[in-house]
Structure formats: structure tokens, C-alpha cells
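> Could you send the histidine kinase prediction when you get a chance?

Sure thing. Input:
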Amino acid sequence: MRIPSLGARRIGLPRRAVSQILLTQLAIAAGVAVLATGLFLAPLSAQLDDQAMQRALAIARSTAADPSLAAAVLDSGPTADGPVQAAAERIRRATRAEYVVVMDLHGIRRSHPRPDRIGLPVSTDPGDVLAGRDVTEIDEGTLGRTARGKVPLVAADGEFVGAVSVGISYDSVRARLLGAIPGLLAYAGGALAAGALAAYLLSRRIQRQTRDLAFSDISGLLAEREAMLHSIREGVVALDPAGRIRLVNDEAARLLGLSPADTARAPGRPLDEVVGAGRTADVLSGRATGRDLLTVQGPRVLVANRMPTEDGGAVATLRDRTELEQLRRELDSTQGLIDALRAQDHEHANRLHTLLGLLDLGLHEEAAEFLAEVAGGRRSTAEQVTEKVHDPLLAALLVGKATVAAERGVPLRLTDGSFLPDRLADPGGLVTIAGNLVDNALDAAAGSAAPLVEVELRCEDRTLVLLVRDSGPGVPESRREKIFTEGWSTKQPQGRRERGLGLALVRRLAERQGGTARAGGTADGGAEFSVVLPEALR
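Output:
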């Protein structure tokens, strides 16, 4: 629903944005044309005035340069038929000047276009020119408004004998100025027409881009967009064609771990600079392609999708999958426990059948020995783990993994020097790290000729070192960093379960505690994963 624009109705403007823009542009073009015309005419008038004064001064100088004129001023009186009047009139007619007036040192006219004014004082003050200075001016005189040039009149011996004043009618200057106006207005009209055409074409383009909406509609849409983006529970990051951030909504800032100051500075900055180089930046920028891509940002597991826009930019959405991943890990732990119980049940059934057979055959001593051996072996495995690992969570994990490993035919053992006190700062994090590494090691060692998985735990002050070795094919050196990237895995996905998160989580959990997670090799060609946690112990 469109809301009427009150401002547009109040001042009588059309309601559509494109019409208002067109009228505004036409008004600006007309104003610029008028201003340009005025700015051109002002210096033109001054230039024509200066040209007229300089022309008058040049005529006066050429007149005063005639030595016979100075001699005539000295030898003759102020008469209408004297030589001074004759020479001045000859020069006036030749140059088409308004007047050529020759005066003596007392300011008395010796020549004038009107003979009756000869012998009378000049109408303007001759002080400056009779003092030996050239004068140019536009002034009112007996012959009207003229552009004047005055020069001293000097005799052959260098004596000042008077002055020469030449005037050019100002009406002729004005006529030249007025004559230039039609051509100037024609140019201004052409410029205005070109500006109007450009304004029309621009307004048509804006009409297509704004879909012929009014300003109030556009304002309302922007307000609704801002409210929607910041209220939805899904992160939104918009990028321009150059990969710079256009906007980050509140949920995206929370999921990406941005502070309010970082969020405020984000628009206009490159994505890698704000988010940091890595999997998240690759997914949001489009360097990693696909749908529902998983990435780990800090402690969070995110699902990202990216949609390009018409201008070459893109809009990426983020969803928090951290809780889902936690539930999945708990399910994996439960599944591991079920597998361990199933393995124990299977193994227990086999041993009961063996014990029953020995009893049926009457081999009671052998049955007693077998029963003692089975009980001692089970107790030995649990005792070996609890002697070296005092943390109950990790000890339970290793006992359960040992049972699953035995079912799969892969021995799982702790090295002789392993020891872990019950002082872990984050037992849950270490369980996740060890569980992922042991599971990967079991998968790798299961198909080898002499399967074996070794776990080593060392403590130095507050630093914990976890080593997990397997007898599998190992990890090529070129892939030892790549395997920690989210989404990268050598295993085929099972159903809809995502692969490539375990090792990425291991590294992120280690880095969150200021530690490291690296992959290496063993002397037998297997893989060795090492995790160092500097502040793991309280």
C-alpha cells in the first residue's frame, strides 16, 4: 500500500519519484544555464569596457605624438578655425571617435566637435593628465557617457603644453554587448536542451531501477528492510561486486563473533579483513561453492548459503548448527557406548559358550582357569587406563574405545609414559578432541596388516600433550594442513551426515585454549596427530 507524500502534495510536486527527479534536474539545468550566461556576460562587459578605453587611449597617444599639434597649441589661440581644431577633427573623423579634445595647461578647450565649446574649460577635472599621467575612464561628459583616454601633450623640447582627450561613445560598446547576447542565449538554450535530454534519459533509467515508486514508498521499503534484516534469527551478510561488506545484520554479527564496534566499521571493508582468512571467508565470498556449506567460526558450527545479486554482489545467509553438532556428538558418544556394549555382549556370549562347553566336557579346572583369565584381562584393561588417566570422563572414553577397538580387531593401548592427573580445566573439550582422533585412528588402522592405535598423554606443568598414532596408510605431507579444513574428508558421507568436521573441531578447540593441533607421520608409515594445550591443567 502506497502512502501519499505529504511534502509533495504541499508544494504541488508530482508524487512519483521519477517525475520529481526530472523536474529537479530541469530546474538545475536551467539555473546552471542562467548562471553561466550571467557569469559570461559580466566579464564580457568589463572586457568590452577595457577594450574601448584602451582604444581611446591609443588614439589619444597617436594624436599627441604629432609635434605640429603641440606647436599649434603654443602658436595659436582657441578658435574654431584654428589649426588645432582642424587637426583634431581630421583625426576624429578618421578614427570614428566621439570626440578628440585638445586642451592647454589651463584646461581650456582648443578643439571640440561642437565649435561653440572651444575656449571653454573642460567638463571633467584635468588635474591627473596635466600632471603627466595617462588616464582611462568611463564617465559622463557634455557628449554623454563615453569611454575616455587622456594623455599629456608634450612639445618637441619636452615641455608640457596641454593634453589630448579622446572619447568613444559608450552606446557603441553597449551595442556590441547586446549584439553578443542572442548568440550567447542560443548556446545557453542548446545547453539547456542537452541537459533536459540527459535529465529525461536519466529519469527513465531511475524509473526502471526504482520500479516507478514514490519517495515515500522507497523510504517505507528501506525501513521495512532494516527491521526485517535485524529481527530475523538468521545471519545475513551482503557483499558488493568487489567483495566488500554492504551490511551485517545482528544475528550474523553474533554468529561471526563480531563486536558492536567491528559491526559498525564493517560496511565498506573487505570480507577477509572483517571475518578473517579461512573457510568462513571462502564460503561467504563464493570461493567455496555449494549449498548448505559447513564452516566453523570460533566455537560455532555454521551452515552457509550464498546467492548472487544482479549487480555482481551477493547475499549470504548463516544458520547456527552448534547445538545440532553437540547433539550429534552426544549421539555419536551414545552410539559408541552402544557399540561397546554390543561388542561386550557378543564377546561375553562367546565366552559363556566356551565356559559352558568346558563344563559339559567335565573340564572343570580348565573352565576355572579360563574364567580367571577372562576376568583378569577385562580388569587389567580398566586398571591400566585408570592408573594412568585420573580424569573420569577421559578414562571412561578410552575404556569404551578400547572395547570397540577390540571388536574391530584393532588393539588400543596407552603408552608406558602416559599420565593425566584429575586437574583438567576443560574435560569436555579434551574428550571431544581425543574421541575424534581415536575414531579416525581406528578407521585408518582397521585395514592395515598389523593394526594398532597408540595414545600417549604427557603433562608438563600446566601443559598437556596428546599424541594419537595409528598403523594406517598415513597422511601425505601435502595434505597435513588441508585435512584440518572444514568440509574436507577422505571418507564418503554416510547418508545425510556431513564429513570433514572432526579434525576442524579438534583444531578449533585446541586454538581456543591457546594450543595447536598438527598432523605428522610415524616411522612405520602411519599417522601421528599431536595436540598441545598450554593451559589445560588447573
